[in-house]
Amino acid sequence: QVQLVESGGGLVQTGGSLTLSCEASGRTITNSAVDWYRQPPGKEREFVATINWTGRNPFYATSVRGRFTISKDSAKNTVYLQMNSLKPEDTAVYYCGYKTVVGPPQSWGQGTQVTVYS
Questions:
Q1: Residues near 76 by Cβ (< 8 Å), separated by ≥ 6?
Q2: Distance (Å, rounded) from C-alpha 30 to C-alpha 55?
Q3: Residue 28 and residue 77 in contact, taking contact as beta carbons nearer than 8 Å
Q4: What percent of the chain has pLDDT over 90?
Q5: Residue 57's pLDDT is what?
Q6: How many CB atoms lie within 10 A of CB 62?
Q7: Which residue, 89, 106, 96, is CA-closest to 43?
Q8: Using an 8 Å Cβ cutoff, are 37 and 27 in contact?
Q9: C-alpha of 81 from chain center
Q10: Mean pLDDT for the chain overall
Q11: What does the pLDDT average to over 106-111?
């Protein structure tokens, strides 16, 4: 079982930046990945970005490509989501998830709120 703890959310003005962190603990394996998802108010959870456990092969949703960067610090077992040029539509609860198979994550963090105001 893998436990995830997100941090770094907050209130930011349009055009600003935030960096979210997702620290993993427990039985991680090399052949796995960490996803970031988000759930805007009143909407379903949606995919944002993913990176494999070795820190390679990042992939982004079209809506955030070019503005968000996902990365991993292997020494800290932490995955980051650097978010730049934030827009009000980026407002959501952001979740990180850990997975060992294709498809949605099998383990989730508790979420962290990001609010972008204009």
A1: 23
A2: 10
A3: yes
A4: 92
A5: 95
A6: 6
A7: 89
A8: no
A9: 5
A10: 96
A11: 96
Question: Tokens at residue 113, please?
Answer: 């709120």
Q: Which residues of 3-36 are buried (b: 16+ CB within 10 A; e: fewer)?
A: ebebebbeebeeeeebebbbbbeeeeeeebbbbb
Q: 73 is written with which tokens?
A: 């610090």
Tell me which residue has tokens 């949605």.
Answer: 104
Using CB atoms within 10 Å of the CB of residue 64, give its burial: 0 to 12 exposed, 13 to 18 middle, 19+ buried.
Answer: buried
pLDDT for position 102:
84
Instruction: Return the residue matching tokens 């998802």.
Output: 37
In angstroms, rounded to a whole number, what is the distance separating the alpha carbons of residues 29 and 13? 38
Beta bridge partners of 4: 24
Q: What is the pLDDT of residues 26-81, one digit of tens each?
A: 998 889 999 999 999 999 999 999 999 999 999 999 999 999 999 999 999 999 99
